Every structure is written in C-alpha cells, then in structure tokens.
Amino acid sequence: xxxxxxxxxxxxxxxxxxxxxxxxxxxxxxxxxxxxxxxxxxxxxxxxxxxxxxxxxxxxxxxxxxxxxxxxxxxxxxxxxxxxxxxxxxxxxxxxxxxxxxxxxxxxxxxxxxxxxxxxxxxxxxxxxxxxxxxxxxxxxxxxxxxxxxxxxxxxxxxxxxxxxxxxxxxxxxxxxxxxxxxxxxxxxxxxxxxxxxxxxxxxxxxxxxxxxxxxxxxxxxxxxxxxxxxxxxxxxxxxxxxxxxxxxxxxxxxxxxxxxxxxxxxxxxxxxxxxxxxxxxxxxxxxxxxxxxxxxxxxxxxxxxxxxxxxxxxxxxxxxxxxxxxxxxxxxxxxxxxxxxxxxxxxxxxxxxxxxxxxxxxxxxxxxxxxxxxxxxxxxxxxxxxxxxxxxxxxxxxxxxxxxxxxxxxxxxxxxxxxxxxxxxxxxxxxxxxxxxxxxxxxxxxxxxxxxxxxxxxxxxxxxxxxxxxxxxxxxxxxxxxxxxxxxxxxxxxxxxxxxxxxxxxxxx
Length: 510
Description:
The chain is an alpha/beta fold and 510 residues long. It has helices at residues 2-7, 64-73, 120-137, 158-174, 198-211, 224-234, 241-252, 256-270, 297-333, 348-356, 399-404, 406-409, 429-442, 460-466, 468-480, 495-505; strands at residues 11-16, 21-26, 50-55, 77-82, 91-97, 104-106, 110-111, 146-152, 178-185, 215-218, 237-240, 337-342, 373-379, 383-389, 417-423, 450-455, 484-485. It is elongated and about 105 Å long.
C-alpha cells in the first residue's frame, strides 16, 4: 500500500489457488488493465481460479470496473485495499460471485489485519455451491448443450422481436439444445463490436454462470469480428441464427443433393470466419526482408476450402442437370405438377403422405425434412398429378442458404400450381404467410397460381373454447385468403382440397 501511494499508481496481483502470484499488474491512478489470462482458461469451471488483490488510492470502495472484471473474467474474488492519507491502517473490501439474484456478494470494508477466511478452501466451497445451484435449476440430458438466447435490434416492435426469439427457441429445440434463458435488448444504437451493450453482456455472463449455460445463440447474423469479440469477453461458445440453421440442415439432409448443398452452405459460411491465432498465422510480407516459407496453415486451409467450394458447385450443377432431365420428362408427359410450399413445420410432408399414402419422414420440428420429395396422386377417372414437397421457408433465411438451396427450389419453377400450406393453429400464421410470399417473390415464383390451404384445423376447436377472439381471427383470415381448411392427419377433411384440384385441372369434368 505504501509503494502504491508513493508511486501514485494502483498496484495489483493475481494469486492462484496454490497461493502463488500468477501476475503482477501496475496501473495508473484510476485503475488497472488486467492482461489476457491464457494460462488460466475457464473451460467447464465456474470460476477461473485467480484472486485479484489491488490498491485504491482515494480510499474509495470497489468500483464498477472492479465488479465488471469480477463478472466478465469470473475471478474467484476481488479485493480492494485502501488507507486514509497518512494512516497506516489498511482496510479491505471483498466481492465474489454467488448464486444470489444479483450474482455478486459484496462485503463491508474491514481491517486488513482482521480478515478471516476466503482462502483456497473457502473459494473451492463457493464454487461447489455455485455448481449445486446450477444442478438444482437445470436437468439437461447427458452431453446436451445448454444455451441462452439473445436478440438485439435497434429498430422494430417488441412483439416482432419476441416472435422471432420464440422461433429461435424452436430452432434450438430442433437442434437438440436446452434453452435456459433469453435476453432482449432494443438499444437506440447497436454496438458495432459486440452488438449489445457491455452492461447487458455482463448480465448475460452472470446468468450463464448461475444457470450453467455454455452457449450463446444470437437471433441476428453476427460478423466474424463480433463472434470473436463476444467469445473473448464471455469465454462462451457463440452462434448466430444462420449457424444454428446450418447445423439443423446438416443433421437433416439425407439425399446426395441435400448433403452437397448443406456442405456448400457451411463452407461459404465458414470461409470469411476462418482466422488464425494472431499475426503468427498470417501470410508473411513479400519483398526484401519479408520473403517467407510459402503458405501458412491458415492460407492453406482457406485455399482448400475455396477448392472444395468450386468442386461442390460443379457437382451441384451436374445434379441440377439430372433434375432438369427428370423434370422435362414429367413436363412432356403432360402430367400436372403441384408443389407444396409453406413455412417450416406447417405440415407439408404430412399432407404429402396423407394425399399419396407414402411415408416421407415427419416430426414436430422445424426443418424436419430438407430433401425434395415427389409422389404421384391418382384421382378418379384415371387422372393423376405429381405432388412435390419442398424445404420449408423461415423468416430471415440467410442469403447464403437461399443460394445453396436454389437448386432444390428449382423444382418449383415447373409447378402448375402452388399449394401454400399454412399452420392455422400458429398465432403468427399471418406473418408466416407474408414471409413465404416475400420469399416466393424473391425467387420470382409469385406468378404461379396459388391455393392457400389452412392446415391443423383440428386444433382450432380447443382454441375456440380458450380464446374466442383468436379463433374468429383465423376464420376471418380464411375468408380473406379464400383458403381451404383441412387437417392433414384426418383424411376425410382432404375432400374439399381434392375437389379444388380437379376443378383447377379438369374443369370440364364438373
């Protein structure tokens, strides 16, 4: 303390649990800059295993900067030493992370020579207490990822943000992730480095500690720099919406087409995010004194990815030509082609199975099926049509994914009719209709005739008893869109749809 007052600089040490000094820090009059703690990674630990003990020159208590370091770095504790000018009496104030709602416990200042406890044993007990609190709150399956969802938008209605976050939660469930909590921030201006403000980021870190989360999933698409900055500050794995969708696609693709398209989308997403560990991984400068040994590992990886992307695009073109030949044969045969489109999880595959008595995989998950399926539907008087099921649409589908699945969506171009399937039981069904139509317009498919079909109407009767206003809203929308009502799990309800198909393609039979 005397040396600190003499130098007019804050001095600090970071002590590990073995009692050894790991770092000595010399700051200025106002504060300290803690170095990168590479030798003490968090991993799966709740606390880092380091205690920060430092001086304050103005006899002030623990500052906001001290508590920020405690939260973001997950230190075992922070201690501030103070002494009035000219006095030999040194006081100490402690703070540590805890399972309390605030996430921090601060103790009142006390004489340094009377300080009892808070050695390595007490810190280990505190860490076990935090571990117990986490286990009481969550019951995750073995190996299951546990995440906190985050949405940060500078503009837009809160209801719209909440709807998008609810959809992100469904995406996480589809990917097998347990969602522990979610955060919404609507700042006037986005932070270009971390998207959200530092205060909110601290809250997220504390909540992750208390709930045992190891993963942050953002509803917005993050830049590579933002992913690195947030990961460095929180030391948690960071994903964005695009990466989560890509992970689901990778799990669900079964055909060669699907697998090629998913790998292509993943590599295009990965390429700009591929970074080395500092300057030692970058290409050496050319010219005199800068000639290096050739490509570094990072450049080699990038070149291999670009080569693989080129090869996959070639393979995709060949697969596309094969599909084109199959489509041309169908067109020559003069058989009408109907494509089922709609928001993901609207029941497209279930409807295809019900109409054609086939067994396309279905499940109550987003993107349960990715691969295009075509089946023949036989109607009375030896008439038949081909019905095609396509990948489901979703809001904010990244451009890279749209490009990757362009080949699959080419199937829609030859359609004579689009069955726009809508999940009538979803409270956001009208937003979903707008999203699907916007994507169809973007793909220049909005000129193909469309029949709107409200599915899952078997779930409307319980809604009528529970929420009459919501039930009436569905009925009014059905009239407005001139929609046909069905339940794909109840075959008798499909008769009006079959009659409409006959009327569209064979009106003379009426």
